[in-house]
Amino acid sequence: MTTTTIEHWIGGRSAAGRSGRTATVTDPATGAETARVALADAAEVDAAVAAAKAAAPHWAASSLARRTAALFAYRELLHAHRDEIARLITAEHGKVRADALGEVARGLEIVELACGIAQLLKGETSTQVSERVDVEAIRQPVGVVAAITPFNFPAMVPLWMFPMAVACGNTVVLKPSEKDPSATLRLVRLATEAGLPDGVLNLVNGDKPAVDRLLEHPDVDAVSFVGSTPVARHVHRTASAAGKRVQALGGAKNHMLVLPDADLDLAADAAVSAAYGSAGERCMAVSVVVAVGAAADPLVERIAERARKLTVGPGDDPASEMGPLITREHRDRVASYVPRAREQGATVVVDGTGLSVPGYEGGFFTGASLLDRVTPGMDAYRDEIFGPVLSVVRAADYTEAIDLINASPWGNGAAVFTRDGGAARRFRLEVQAGMVGVNVPIPVPVGYHSFGGWKASLFGEHHVYGNDSVHFYTRGKVVTTRWPDPADAGVDLGFPANG
Ligand code: NAD
Fold first, then answer.
1. Ligand 1: distance of its center to the CA of 306 in Å?
2. Which of 228, 249, 450 is the pocket-test mutation for ligand 1 (most atoms within 8 Å of CB)?
């Protein structure tokens, strides 16, 4: 059997890998290799950046009508191909089909936002700031944008970036995760079909060498990155030192605070959905429940009851609620936290490790695990596990709980479950996180607001999509104009003052 090698997309056409390096792409449900992916070297990255640079002046000068026509056509194509894209996501990532379709739908939100770019790019003017002087503030494209994305949302995260980048008049080189590149490549090919001119959106597959070349390439002007915290830190540091603007979103450890007055059935449903959905491989997954006072015992019981009932299986089986993890190594690492938590003093309420799915014995499965009486010193609390392992930390009162949450090095999302409006209001103001849910466990903002965390969950000033993305993907320019009257003639060496 011949294995397909997934190629790059440069200047509007497929480009075979020439570096001689490839990586394996696997179906996580079976463990079988399904394809190889070319890993770009510096010369291949240079070719993609050159294509983006060559396309940049013409695209930046193209009318808003021309840009939005392509984006509206793209929206229609994505709708028409959403099942196909969801199938590609499930085949290489493993998440269940409904979740994959949800990912495409959330990505489409940003394409729809980008369709309205004409409204978002309107400048500001001030008339008659001085005698016969007007001021206009306009925003112009940055140039060539590098977009580097993680494995866990191979469609949604690229769609957070490139539609707004091209809508703002930039050209893009996208570097998707080498673990599940096919859905991302399909998105890029469809954008060409929708009418994006050759070179406006390019894709290079690759790993660290490709990323590092993008971070230092003199013709890359801005870098959007989403991935783990150590890599986000490296990206931010390296690209900033090379003089680029950077937004680098990192990992997370999201807390869900449950107060004793909360509806505990609703809270348990929310905790289970947010902890085990997509097998915990979401940057907005709830990985810690902080149960206050009397909420703890009944809440743990309710979560355990639900976690035990989850159906784990291949993502393309409609009966599966949770699919496999991305790789065997990652599955083993995730599973290792459960016995370690027991050794470190936690109570293992549900142990999902060691699960084997009949007919899929080679798949990278693990069941849902629930740890109770976890404390901040334990590995399960300290690390981003990125799998279906939920920790419960018990706190005596609200103050102890919020202090714990705010001591976390991460600050992506946080949620509070309560019926007390006053407590919810306090939490909303006091919690140190970029995205907050009140009785909402995964508060991923809608497209017209922006997504981003605090602390080690984001390096840089700008969040992604929403108004922040318009600012990130454009540069401001202020034009001061005077149409002189012959009466104004004369030299004046004073600093311009208005009057
Ligand atoms: P990752 O950091 O391993 O990889 C992200 C990207 O960086 C990939 O394209 C990869 O090829 C590249 N990369 C990996 N190692 C590199 C290195 N040493 N130098 C340069 N480039 C490198 O992340 P992942 O495992 O693909 O994704 C999961 C992580 O992403 C989790 O930590 C998750 O929380 C995070 N994430 C964050 C958000 C967010 O919005 N904050 C969203 C999704 C995922």
1. 30
2. 228
Separation CA 91–CA 416 (nearest Å): 35
Which value does ipTM take for this structure? 0.98
Length of the chain in terms of residues written: 499
**Closest to 412 (Cα-Cα) out of 234, 293, 294, 282:** 282
HSE value, Cβ hemisphere, 13 Å, CA-based, for 255: 30
Residues with catalytic roles: 283
* Domain shared by 223 and 235, yes or no: yes
Helices and strands in the chain: count of H runs, count of E runs: 16, 23
Question: Which residues make beta-bridge pairs with 322?
Answer: 312
**Which residue's CA is the nearest one to ligand 1's atom 16?**
208
Q: Which of 45, 99, 110, 151 to mutate to test the pocket of ligand 1 (most atoms within 8 A of CB)?
A: 151
CA-nearest residue, atom 34 of ligand 1: 251
The two tokens of residue 172 are 């893009």
Is beta strand 8-10 parallel, antiparallel or unpaired with respect to 13-15?
Answer: antiparallel
Query: What's the gap in Å between 251 CA and the centre of ligand 1?
Result: 8
Rounded Cα distance between 144 and 98, Å, is 35
**Do 84 and 217 lie in a common domain?**
yes
* CATH number of the domain that residue 462 is part of: 3.40.605.10
Using alpha carbons, select from 278, 32, 320 the residue that is nearest to residue 150: 278
Same domain, 217 and 265: no
- Per-residue pLDDT of the chain (499 residues), as tens digits, is 678 999 999 999 999 999 999 999 999 999 999 999 999 999 999 999 999 999 999 999 999 999 999 999 999 999 999 999 999 999 999 999 999 999 999 999 999 999 999 999 999 999 999 999 999 999 999 999 999 999 999 999 999 999 999 999 999 999 999 999 999 999 999 999 999 999 999 999 999 999 999 999 999 999 999 999 999 999 999 999 999 999 999 999 999 999 999 999 999 999 999 999 999 999 999 999 999 999 999 999 999 999 999 999 999 999 999 999 999 999 999 999 999 999 999 999 999 999 999 999 999 999 999 999 999 999 999 999 999 999 999 999 999 999 999 999 999 999 999 999 999 999 999 999 999 999 999 899 999 999 999 999 999 999 999 999 999 999 999 999 999 888 778 888 989 888 7
- Write out the residue range of the structural domain in which residue 260 sits: 254-438
279 and 156 fall within a common domain: no
Residues 243 and 286 in one domain: no
Based on the domain organization, do 241 and 269 belong to the same domain? no
Centre of ligand 1 to C-alpha 229, Å, is: 8
The model scores a pTM over 0.90? yes
Distance from Cα 93 to the centre of ligand 1, integer Å: 14
Pocket of ligand 1 (CB under 6 A): 148-153, 157, 175, 177-178, 207-208, 211-212, 226-228, 231, 234, 249-252, 283, 384, 386, 412, 453, 457
Q: Are strands 369-372 and 347-350 parallel, antiparallel or unpaired?
A: antiparallel
CA of 188 to the centre of ligand 1 (A): 20
**Residues 261 and 218 grouped into a single domain:** no
Relative to the CA of 458, which ligand 1 atom is closest? Answer: 41
* 262 and 404 co-located in one domain: yes
